[in-house]
Amino acid sequence: SQKIEQNSEALNIQEGKTATLTCNYTNYSPAYLQWYRQDPGRGPVFLLLIRENEKEKRKERLKVTFDTTLKQSLFHITASQPADSATYLCALDGGNNRKLIWGLGTSLAVNP
Amino acid sequence: GAVVSQHPSWVICKSGTSVKIECRSLDFQATTMFWYRQFPKQSLMLMATSNEGSKATYEQGVEKDKFLINHASLTLSTLTVTSAHPEDSSFYICSAPQGAFTEAFFGQGTRLTVV
Fold first, then answer.
1. Which of A19, A27, A52, A72 is deepest in the core (most CB within 10 A)?
2. What is the DSSP letter of A29?
3. Is B31 exposed, middle or buried (0-12, 13-18, 19+ CB in 10 A)?
4. Is A28 within 8 Å of A2 (Cβ atoms)?
5. Residues B98, B24: Cα–Cα separation, whole Å
6. For residues A42-71, average pLDDT
7. B107 at interface of A, judged by CB pairs closer than 8 A
8. pLDDT band at B6 (very low <50, low <70, confident <90, very high)
9. How far apart are CA A89 and CA B25, in angstroms?
């Protein structure tokens, strides 16, 4: 069955540095991959979607890469700010039924 | 982006009672909505797929008679937790995709506490 893994440990970085989060998957070839942000007690908020034929996607300070050979996506936040502190979830498309397969999430703390 | 509104944001109920959670798509029509449950420090666990005009599709291990889903219109899906027990206490979240290959929009979530 499909398996998706994210950095299991919380990531602590200093303000201004670049945060890099990892999402690895096995036994699957998703057509696209998505990244979401979730704050405590809130629903996830969509950040970026990258398709299988795209290597990289950017949005303001965010960058996502998608390596279908390594079966890995990297999520970068440049010039990080304390307001970026949250849990970041990786999700793969579940096929044409529009279900998503979710990772456990990585908690990011940006220290001032 | 599109807006999905979920209500209530939190609810406390007595064991044995039923609780209804509403999920509305405010500015688009959603033929499909998804209901998730999330325990502390855990990822989203899909419970069921709500289909407008037809029966919901439940994931393995989810009791359909306990978690009643109704998708009566293109903008509203409801999840009713029947005969709630303390182990049903969790964070319930709905989502609606606008189409294939697009992002999902989530409600604010409902914190259910059964005492």
1. A19
2. -
3. middle
4. yes
5. 13
6. 94
7. yes
8. very high
9. 22
